[in-house]
Amino acid sequence: MSLLDASLIADVPPFRGINRENLVELLSKAKSERYEIGRTIFCQGEEAHSFFLLLDGHVRVIKVTPEGDQVIARYISNGELFGIAHALGLERYPANAVTAVDCVMLSWPGKLWGTIIEKYPTFATNTYQTVGSRLQETQNKLVEMATKRVEQRVANAILKLANQTGRKTDEGILIDFPISRQNISEMTGTTLHTVSRILSAWENKGIVKSGRKKITVTEDHQLALLAAGELYN
Amino acid sequence: MSLLDASLIADVPPFRGINRENLVELLSKAKSERYEIGRTIFCQGEEAHSFFLLLDGHVRVIKVTPEGDQVIARYISNGELFGIAHALGLERYPANAVTAVDCVMLSWPGKLWGTIIEKYPTFATNTYQTVGSRLQETQNKLVEMATKRVEQRVANAILKLANQTGRKTDEGILIDFPISRQNISEMTGTTLHTVSRILSAWENKGIVKSGRKKITVTEDHQLALLAAGELYN
DNA sequence: ACGGGTATTTGATCTAAAACAAGCTTCCGA
DNA sequence: TCGGAAGCTTGTTTTAGATCAAATACCCGT
């Protein structure tokens, strides 16, 4: 199953510390698949059949409310696990996952999780660490929502995307996948209109350059100040 | 160490499915302690020395921002684990924990966690399940913050408290520990003034009865409608 | 029973951001 | 190269809820 050389993948964080033999075994149980842009990987409420490791691309994790409002819980990048409902003792996926660009990922059948805990405890521990850091990250976002205003939240969201997935260009740090005003509003709990106004204002001040589904951060330090709420004009 | 009879504690959720021998062993490694009301159990940023199981009482888990704003992440009740930084691969506590009433709890040294995974895998699995459900709960709160207005969030918060920790009285369901308007505002991302106004309005409609640090829900169904945003007047 | 601290209520004003409403730009497929 | 859809901008109006500002109620210790 591995066209992927085990040695190439060995330093992806979820595999850190696993011995060679176990890694090869674990990879042999995975299915590798390509997902084209916009494809739904799994749906909220659906029975959790698999868990995934993203090898290349970006995935949006989306929560949908009964009223139809949509919130982007996080973006998954390169080398991250997702859809790990089984590790959390869940039978159903708690969110949707949709590719933001073309992706390649590994997947394991969810029912394998029990075996994994026993046979590859290092991998299990790494997975739990992922869960732990997501809990923290989510809690931090909650605090941010409760205490910061919209501009700071938007600054923070863009800053994080730039740091995690940004690509250096001659103009600044480009967020490396198509992201709309609407998407950013769904990450920060506001409206696309407000995001548009904020980005326009920043563009005038030379902090960002942006276009259709495209954002480049030119003055990340300024943006960090805005995120911290230290600058008001 | 166990004045506590193992058989009494055996059906506390984190211990579910553990065999008798392991349970006794696990309990023998715990320290049991009483914490009086208002006492700080641990602080955000402090090195994680122990993890805890609350046997009786209520604990507030609080996140503090660099600016000094305070957010109540959750209330811990009877039979719940908390301070489980070690299980998440963290070296420091990510929040404060303060008792909301007099409490009794068990604690284990954090450095034991490695041993626990090996020797009491069932307990470890239960712990991870706790983490999983907290991640979900936190994510749901985030969605709520992003999409619902203040009154709905307050309704939801009070409803949850009433369900989880409420005591039936002849007037309705009483939240069984002292909770101020300020506390509720810190749970819902608003101000004590707004909470006060909302409670006054509800009191006029006969949905709740409330006093100083005391709330009784008299019409929980009405409150559930408000939480869902189905009622506007 | 009194006094001071803590919690609550309620009014008045202000404002950030939502909602409403057009118009404009960019892209892509026919 | 044209037309329509999707995405973006920007002006205006509205409003939920914060902020400002007192006044009042309750509780506990002496």
UniProtKB/TrEMBL annotation, chains A, B:
One of its GO terms (cellular component) is cytosol. InterPro entries: cNMP-bd_dom, cNMP-bd_dom_sf, Env_Response_Regulators, HTH_CRP, RmlC-like_jellyroll, WH-like_DNA-bd_sf, WH_DNA-bd_sf. Residues 14-83 form the Cyclic nucleotide-binding domain. Residues 148-221 form the HTH crp-type domain. PROSITE patterns: CNMP_BINDING_3, HTH_CRP_2. Coiled coil: none annotated. The keyword Transcription regulation applies. One of its GO terms (molecular function) is DNA-binding transcription factor activity. Keywords: DNA-binding, Transcription, Transcription regulation. PANTHER family: CRP FAMILY TRANSCRIPTIONAL REGULATORY PROTEIN, LISTERIOLYSIN REGULATORY PROTEIN. This is Cyclic nucleotide-binding domain-containing protein. It comes from Sneathiella litorea.
